Every structure is written in structure tokens, then in C-alpha cells.
Amino acid sequence: MNRPENHEEEDLILGPELHFLIHGRRHRVDNFLKIIDSWSYIEFKRRLRLPRQITIKLIGELGKSGYIPEYNDEYRYKSAKLCFLLFLWYIANTEPLKTLSNKFDLPTSCIFHILRRVLAWLLTKVNTSITWPRGIDVDVVCEGFKAQQGIPNILGVIDCMQIRIKKPPVDARDYYNRQKFYSISLEAIVDSDLRFTNVYCGSPGFLTDTQVFRKSMLFHIASSQSSIMFPRNTFLIGDSAYPSLPWLVPPFRDSGYLTSQQVEFNYLHSSTRMVIDKTFEQLKGRFRRLKFINDYYNIEFIIHTVIAACVLHNYCVNAFDIYDFSNDDVDFQHGIHDLVQPQLYSQNTEEINQPNRRAVRIDRRTQVFHEIFS
Questions:
Q1: Which parts of the chain are coiled coil (predicted)?
Q2: Over the stretch 150-207, which tens digit does the pLDDT of each residue have?
Q3: Which helix H or strand E contains 229, and what residues bound it?
Q4: What one-character-per-residue DSSP string does 279-311 give?
Q5: Those residues with Cβ within 8 angstroms of residue 86's Cβ, 6 or more apart along the chain or in another chain
Q6: Which member of 69, 100, 103, 350 has the greatest number of CB atoms within 10 A?
Q7: Which pTM was predicted?
Q8: Which backbone phi and psi does 334 adopt, to 5 degrees?
Q9: Are 338 and 220 within 8 A, CB to CB?
Q10: DSSP state of 214
């Protein structure tokens, strides 16, 4: 891959910085790399949150990507190794950048340049690592969900998670959620193996799940191409915050008059949805930086950090790497179902579409209900 043109100016800064770190401070950098190399498999993953074999693979790819300034092969690999390990240390921990700067005796500006460059590279992997089920994968995903609670044709589970951030300098009220902290939303769809198949990140925390959903590219594409996105009568499931659509099935709303079978359906529905809770817990447990990204006001940088974490999460899932993070005291927050709802859509549009939504809600959910209980 050729070096990205928009990084050429930054190379004039990052290149000399890396050269100085590796050659001018060889002793300190070598010690850092040697210490990491000496860690056991368990210690490596406990501290950096990725298995060693995945890390080595990604370092090699980063070194050949053009995102790290090149001088010679030995320097290029060492630069890539230093950059990627520093990035893993950053995203795996919650310590401030100033602490990280002191720990490695690196200027904060240098660390920031390294983080930005690794993030830019990881974002090039989004379309190959976070993929929508196609072909035979559709059957595999559906069978995986059916094996859990017996609901057929589920292609994914959708939900939102809040990423806590510092108070933004601009439009701060838009990011202040009802849980009384500033955040952005990560909307995600996962399969039965805790793998992300679609992510949409960056909406202000003030918005509800439904409003985030209607802003997403998934909603707009699926609304016009549902037969392509959801072949063979497949659909998503989501909690009661989501609308009922031909390809999205929420549970029955409990107004006190549900039948025993409807109550059981909701139980099966809720049990199947737990896969996305586990995925979010794994994501925040593995990459603890997502508990509170308090280093930058730059929303774009925060969004890129979250998406990069999703990419790395999928690498781990594909490698069958599951780790128990239950002892990490993860401040797990997900869902924004009770947020105040601003009027993002005109009343006329809502009134026009409401009858159709109601009809679809009855037909689709009832169809799935009868498939289970008939």
C-alpha cells in the first residue's frame, strides 16, 4: 500500500521523532520492547489485551502499509512495533496521556502522532473486518441464533452503547445524556458469536436509540434494499426502544395484557438479545480506554478510537480469543432508552409514516410469533 498523501506533512514530524526514539534513545526503547517480549502469553494479553500472535501479525501489516515512515526494513519493522505496542497500551488502559508520556519518556505530541497514524491504518480495515453476512454466512448466523432460544431467521441483534467523553467545547448540551454525563453513541449489530457486523458511531449522547438508528446508513440502505440486506426472510431483533419494521422485530410492549405465550416470546427474545450485552462488555473490558475517553476534545479522534476497538475486537473473535474481564471492574454502561427525545423529524413525516409502521409491526412480529408457537 502506498503512503497516504494526506500524511506526507505529518511524516515530516513523525519520521524524525521515530528516528530519534529508536536511535537517539535506543536504550530506553529497547528496554521497553524487550520487557514486552519477555512477557508470558497470559501476561502479554492481560496487559495489552490482544493475543501475541494477532499482535505480531498486525505489526507486520502495519510496517508494510505505508502508514509508518520508511527508512529501511529493520527500522520500518521496529518503528511499526513501537507504534502499535504504544497504541495497544493506550487503548488497553485508562491512564492519562501525561502519565503515558512520563512512563515512556516521550513527548505527548509524539504519542498523539503515533496514535493518529495507527488509528488511520486500522480504519482501512473496517470494510474487511466488520462485514455484513452474505451467502452461506447468512445460514450460519441464523443457525447460531436459533440454537440459543429457538427463534428462526435472526441475522443480528442491534443496540446502542454510550461512550463517556469530556465535555465538548462546542454544542456540549447535545452530548449530555440523561445519565448525567457527556457521551457519544455506538450503535452496533452483532452475530451469535459476538462479532460486529455493522457499527455506527458518533451521534451525540442526547439522542435516543431510535433517533440514532434513523440517522444510520444501515437504516437508509435497508429501507430501500431490505431484500438484499435481509435475504430469505431474515431480520434483526432489538429491544423495545426500536420500531417494528419488516426487517426489525422488537418484543411485545407489556401494558399488562400480554398472553402467557407473548410473555414467553418476550423472554426468548430478551435471552437471545443478551449476546449484544456480552459483546459490549467484552469490548469495554478488553479496551478499557472506552470506559472514559478523557484525553481529547476532538470528537473525530474519539470516534476513530471506538471504531478501531471494534476492528480489533473482531480480530480476536475470528481467532476464537475469549477472555474473562469480569475482574477488571468495568464501568459498563449501555443503552440510552430513557433519554429525552428531541424532535429531529417533522411532525408531518411522523404522522404520515405512523400507520404503515403500525401495520408492519403487527404483521412481522406476529409472523415470527406464530412460527414459534403454532
A1: none
A2: 999 999 999 999 999 999 998 999 999 989 999 999 999 999 999 999 999 999 999 9
A3: helix 226-229
A4: HHHHHHHHSGGGG-B-S---HHHHHHHHHHHHH
A5: 104, 106, 111, 114, 115
A6: 69
A7: 0.84
A8: -150, 150
A9: no
A10: H
